[in-house]
Amino acid sequence: MGKGPRPLSGVRGGGPAKRLISVFLRKERKKMATPKRKTSHARTAQRKAHWLGALNAPSTMMCPHCGDMTLSYRACPSCGFYKSRQALQVKSEA
Ligand SMILES: [Zn+2]
Questions:
Q1: What residues contact residue 70 under an 8 Å CB cut-off, 6+ apart?
Q2: CA-CA distance, 73 to 66, in Å (whole number)?
Q3: Which residues have CB less than 5 Å away from ligand 1 (the ion)?
Q4: End-to-end CA distance of the chain, in Å?
Q5: Residue 69 belongs to what H/E stretch?
Q6: Using CA atoms, how far apart are residues 84 and 42, in angstroms rounded to an integer?
Q7: What pLDDT digit, counting tens, does each position of 66-75 carry?
Q8: How far is the CA of 57 from the centre of ligand 1 (A)?
Q9: pLDDT in tens, 32-56
Q10: In angstroms, what is the span from residue 48 Cα to ligand 1's centroid?
Q11: Rounded CA separation 94/88 (Å)
Q12: I want to staple 87 with a disulfide (CB 3.0 to 4.6 A). Which of 14, 28, 67, 75 is the partner?
């Protein structure tokens, strides 16, 4: 036989729907690639250290309205202002 997976019996050419079904069935039959070696503890630790080192705290800024520290690109939780207008109704004020 030639190269590539053999066409499934019963599903031959046909419309786009039929072809899609054959693709799905072929994918199901395919076996997953497996790693050649196990990942050592050192390698796992190195990967984790790199990933955790890249994490940093969410960026905060001083609210221009009330001066509290707030998350940037969020309405201020203490005064409810965002982009110099009242975006949230804060309960303590109302
Ligand atoms: Zn504020």
A1: 60, 61, 62, 63, 76, 77, 78
A2: 16
A3: 63, 65-66, 76, 79
A4: 79
A5: strand 69-71
A6: 50
A7: 999 999 999 9
A8: 20
A9: 899 999 999 999 999 998 888 888 8
A10: 37
A11: 11
A12: 75
For residue 25, give the nearest of 7, 42, 39 by alpha carbon.
7
Q: Which amino acid is at 11?
A: V
pLDDT value of residue 58: 86
Q: What is the CA radius of gyration of the chain?
A: 28
- Beta carbons of 87 and 93 less than 8 angstroms apart: no
The residues that bridge with 70 in the sheet, in sequence order, are: 61
Q: What share of the chain is helix, strand, coil (3-state, %, to 5)?
A: 30, 10, 60
DSSP labels for 14-45?
-SHHHHHHHHHHHHHHSPPP--SSPPPHHHHH
